[in-house]
Amino acid sequence: MDKMINLIDFGLKEETKRKFEENYKGYFLGRVSVEHKNMYRVITEKGEILSKISGKLNYKAILKSDYPAVGDWVILNKDNEKDGIGIIQGILPRKSVFSRNIPGKKNEEQIIASNIDKVFICMALNNDFNIRRLERYISLAWDSGAQPIVILTKADLCKNISEKISKAEEVAFGINILVVSSINLEGIDRIKAQIKPKDTVAFIGSSGVGKSTIINILLGEERQKVNDIRKDDKGRHTTTYRELIKLPCGGIVIDTPGMRELQIYNGDLETSFSDINEISKNCYFRDCKHESEPKCAVKKAIEEGKITEERLKSYKKLQKELEYMEDKKLLNSKQLEKKKIVNMLGSLDGIKKIKNRK
Ligand SMILES: Nc1nc2c(ncn2[C@@H]2O[C@H](COP(=O)(O)OP(=O)(O)OP(=O)(O)O)[C@@H](O)[C@H]2O)c(=O)[nH]1
Ligand SMILES: [Zn+2]
């Protein structure tokens, strides 16, 4: 740990650095690289430090998203450096966020990774190729705040590449589309060219499309495992993959297990369906659902072959999913308010007592 680490190599931006230096004198800055159960690995200038969150941060945290996530820039307490455990005092504002619903019980946002600048959406050119799925991934990417780039993988297995590219272009407005084969290394340089030195990038897409293969090629070696000094529930020493990886060509890759099972949480329909949004401005009714309303510009565009029926269908389907999510979030925010009041007053009984006094 004697070798100093330059956090710029781990994606530290001027703005984040300034914010930290102005507001947190006496503390030190780090970036979360792995999330364990109640512990985090944090990369600092002095090396990777196993850390936990402060009691205060834990007390203030209401939602899952109030806890640190991989990619977060966090403020660490200097005093606790001696015993090897860092104490996370706070999280700097996130520039971009990838999240998903917590499977099972609560409908709450769980942050999978944060502060990603560019996200490579991977789709294989063989049987995985599905334009509707690509649409969803693009929507999800825009909403995260990261810049999407499409990678069409396994080019060696495809005979009608140009046809598939034009199909992808139909849904990927203004987005770079790269054609790649990890077998003959075609297009790998184009991926490298997209990753600038301070960029934090991530790869998303269905299982088996070749994400790990690309990451390994960029790394020039197999993914390293990190040996964990912590023991798991059964007393075993556990091994985990490093989830925030520095690339030899410059830049950082975030690859968490959660990234691989991303579902739509918050699609940004405005951007990914800008064609439909634009056309629908000419619908006679402002709240036109593009179903059986008269003078519907979207229906007309379909008749004229400007957009496909399928695209409208997937737009509507996504819209429904998002509305459903919004309802749930609304419910969630009500529960949140309640919880905040309870935190303030100690308990719901406390609220009743105050009310009764009036
Ligand atoms: N023909 C061909 N096969 C590839 C290419 N890239 C990867 N593969 C193969 O596809 C399989 C899956 O690749 P992975 O890199 O593990 O896929 P992944 O997207 O990381 O999958 P998950 O870890 O499940 O998310 C492996 O058997 C690879 O060897 C390619 O460009 N061409
Ligand atoms: Zn309409």
UniProtKB/TrEMBL annotation:
GO terms for molecular function: GTP binding; GTPase activity; metal ion binding; rRNA binding. Residues 106-262 form the CP-type G domain. The keyword Transcription does not apply. Zn(2+) binds at residues 283, 288, 290, 296. It comes from the Bacteria. One of its GO terms (cellular component) is cytoplasm. InterPro entries: G_CP_dom, NA-bd_OB-fold, P-loop_NTPase, Ribosome_biogen_GTPase_RsgA, RsgA_GTPase_dom. GO terms for biological process: ribosomal small subunit biogenesis. Its main location: cytoplasm. It is an enzyme of class 3 (hydrolase). One of several proteins that assist in the late maturation steps of the functional core of the 30S ribosomal subunit. Helps release RbfA from mature subunits. May play a role in the assembly of ribosomal proteins into the subunit. Circularly permuted GTPase that catalyzes slow GTP hydrolysis, GTPase activity is stimulated by the 30S ribosomal subunit. Monomer. Associates with 30S ribosomal subunit, binds 16S rRNA. Belongs to the TRAFAC class YlqF/YawG GTPase family. RsgA subfamily. This is Small ribosomal subunit biogenesis GTPase RsgA. It comes from Maledivibacter halophilus. The gene is rsgA.
